[in-house]
UniProtKB/TrEMBL annotation:
This is Aspartate carbamoyltransferase. Residues 7-148 form the Aspartate/ornithine carbamoyltransferase carbamoyl-P binding domain. It is an enzyme of class 2 (transferase). One of its GO terms (biological process) is amino acid metabolic process. Carbamoyl phosphate binds at residues 58-59, 108, 136, 139, 270-271. It comes from Candidatus Naiadarchaeum limnaeum.
Amino acid sequence: MVNLKGKDIISLRELKKDEIEYLLSRAADFEKILQKEGYTNILEGKILATLFYEPSTRTRLSFVTAMHRLGGNVIGFSGPEGTSAVKGENLSDTIRTIDNYADVIAIRHPEEGSAKLAAQLSTRPIINCGDGSHAHPTQTLLDLYTIRKEKGKINGQKVALVGDLKYGRTAHTLAYALALFGADMIFVSPESLSMPKDVTTELKDKFEIEIKEYTKLENIVKDADVLYITRIQKERFPDPGEYEKVKGAYKIDLNVLENAKKDLIVLHPLPRVYEIDPELDNTKFAKYFKQAYYGIPVRMAILASVLGK
Ligand code: CP
């Protein structure tokens, strides 16, 4: 029997496969509630704190929406401006303070390891909404949910991860999760933005996966079942000149998808900049806005589960 009450969601590696399955299954139940009643009150009286030190549209607002649709309340901030961080307060003291205000804390912070630090200090469940280039586990859960929902299963799907695989935290976590669920993976990136060695080594050692890496998108489109493209993470480049060299490396349009499988789906964690031509938005390939919608039932499942409801 899976019990996630009080659990911190720092990285997907700390969740067992049956715990991930449990969250995906609960998300499906919450999606039905969203479509029927739109609301339940199982978290009435509970408070979520959203501590976002970096910009976000989907993650923060879908957590806020999820909490409201579960009958709970939300406090928080969407940038350090206006908080005592500008007066020099460190993260540890902020966490010790919010621990007394809220029942669960969702945090996005530029430093790798910040969510883990918060979990060490807090008595409340901590949900990592992105710590630097490290991990974004709730995005991965909604990515898995989307693939299963739109393709029927994850096992055996040929998933191409395309774009900034070096700094893109969603790609790191997703690669691990896809391996866990038995998908086939192809990595496509500029040479300077390839998947970090620690990720590929783990995939080879733990899952005995053969790593296929390419720099050209055209080489892989016809074989893919899922094309998961990511933004080149401008804000993580130490040298802006290096960003300029790769910023438009990949762009998916109808021409690129000419020889794609008819049931290919295109996913993107969003926001997009150059990566997907808007001409794709109204085609059957485009599932990225649906993917963003699935963030709500998935985050409802996470909140309800870590709060023991
Ligand atoms: N996918 C994602 O994390 O989007 P936001 O940065 O808008 O939260």
